[in-house]
Amino acid sequence: MQLFHYHYWTPFVEETEQAYRSLGFEVKGRFTKSGSFHPPLTWEDFREEQPTFRIIEMRKGQINITFGYSKKVLFDHIGFLVSDEEYAQLLAQAKELNWPIQAGERRTFLSTPLRLRLELQRRTDVIETGTDALHAMTIAVPDLSQTPKVDQLLSPLHQPIHWQKGEQLSLLNVIMTDDDGVDTTDPNGVHIVKQT
InterPro entries this protein is in (predicted)? Predict the structure, then answer.
């Protein structure tokens, strides 16, 4: 089980893409409801059309980040690469907890009482090769009383998820591997620390 992904909605779509590009991420796709603007297209190629992006996918090594347009910043979900065996175990545990399960061919979502969705991904084509990976993250939630249930479900995970009390669900801090040791904050307030 490997933490590999996070997704949020943002009014700062172009700025977010630029911030992650500066960290070495590559755009893998830009999708609107009616089409796409994938690389090699740049923002200069479509800026006048003012597309509303449903999803922009960026990757670096074993990290996959997606974001789309919203009027305000909203943290949506985190994702895990899982084996078939882990998938079956996690689904069984979620059913025991009476958590809603949204199963799909491409991915499955578990809805936690924290309003944080957990994506279970069995396809490895959602990441690239390389050593860049997520190592830990800190997530703010209004009610910490439900976090032990999520921790129990994620107990096989070697990348810790830390919880902090906050006014709303939000991604506060992400630790990634990197050779350069970067310490920055993206346009959505996510503090990114890249460690060697």
Answer: Glyas_Bleomycin-R_OHBP_Dase
